Amino acid sequence: MTVATLVALAAWIYLLAGHGGFWRTNQTDERPMSLPATGDPVVAIVPARDEAAVIGGAVRGLLAQDYPGPFRILLVDDGSTDDTAGIARMATAGDQRLSVIGGAALPAGWTGKLWALEQGRLHAGDAPEWLWLTDADIVHAPDTLRTLVARAQADGLVLNSSMARLECEAFAERALIPAFIFFFAMLYPFSRVNRPGPTAAAAGGCVLVRRTALVRAGGLARIARALIDDCAMGRLLKAEGPIRLSLTHRSRSTRPYAGWQGIGAMIARSAYAQLRYSPVLLAGTLAGMALLYLAPPLAALAGHGLARGAGLLAWGMMALAFQPILRFYRRSPLWGVALPLIALFYTGCTVWSAWAHARGRGGLWKGRAQAALS
User: Fold this and answer.
1) How far is CA 223 from the centre of its chain?
2) Cβ neighbours for 198, distance < 8 A, ≥ 6 positions apart
3) Which residue from 6, 61, 121, 198 could staple onto 139, CB 3.0 to 4.6 Å apart?
4) Is residue 75 within 8 Å of residue 46, measured between CB atoms?
């Protein structure tokens, strides 16, 4: 136990001091920007499948943008069985900037969301300078688009993405949602995404893409099979120029989660895909999670001497690392102490993800099991 705990302590020292400051929340969209008096043409593309519960708010948020340039919205109705399209049209109050496109059948070799985005891209044509890819459950503040474009122009970006604030009110959400951002940032430290180097990612709910850069990169067909489409897009576009990923309070998800099971399903949908469907990487991940998150509290509670001291210190360091994202989500700092249990839940979801993949049910979303494509 002593050796494992000391290794965990050394790992947490590295993570806090040398892993791109992943735990900090200083990569935001809050820096004052000189917003353009006139803006380049932008087309927002919204893929939507059975989103009647949330699409109205998303459409109204898009129509309320104070962007000072040509702007229109393409909603791609991806085979919805509810009244997604009708509710979206009612939300416009006659505003002609919204067009609803009936999605074509999903072809082989594409995941559903990327195929919907591709149809929107083709419909947008060559006129827009920017494509704003945004999800059907995301509500944006009125200055969101202006801020995205201003930052992209100022920094010469080919992609500018914001991590929308997720629902975090119910008990299960308070326990698990901040950790979702924490673990994402551990995999893709925002500061490393935002500077030259191999680390690339994006947040799929809000992605501004320079259309010509996407064309140069080969288009969405290059990543058509990707289940984790936002990070695949980040890698694709970073080869074309600088990209940026930020935390934001301007954009928020209105998608409710059905308690622990609903959040677990959201995690499990892509967890095994993140491991490239590799049993070896799965085994390594389980061992790594046990070492990082379980060994320290076990040593602190049941160990003696050096093991207990190292366990307490490592547990304290992980709780400290969790504090910035807890503050960002305005949650109690005491959740930091519970991070080992939260990590145990995420580990279980990763196993669930691998099991679902083995049963041909991997990547399940709105009735589609898509992981087998990857």
Assistant:
1) 17
2) none
3) 61
4) yes
Task: Name beta bridge partners: 253.
Answer: 138
The pLDDT of residue 365 is above 80? no
Residue 258: pLDDT over 80: no
Are 12 and 157 part of one and the same domain? no
215-223 long-range Cβ contacts below 8 angstroms, 24+ apart: 216/240, 219/118, 219/121, 220/114, 220/117, 220/118, 220/121, 221/118, 223/114
Query: Quick one: 242 and 288 in the same domain?
Result: no
- Regarding whether 347 and 252 lie in a shared domain, the answer is no
Residue 117 domain-assigned (yes or no): yes
Residue 150 Cα to chain centre, angstroms: 22
Report how many domains make up the chain: 2
**Would you say residue 89 lies in a domain?**
yes
Helices first, then strands: H and E counts in the chain: 14, 10
H or E segment and range at residue 161: strand 159-165
239/108 same-domain check: yes
In this prediction, residue 366 carries a pLDDT of 67
Q: What is the pLDDT of residues 226-254, one digit of tens each?
A: 999 999 999 999 999 999 999 999 999 99
How do strand 138-140 and strand 243-253 relate by DSSP bridges?
Answer: antiparallel
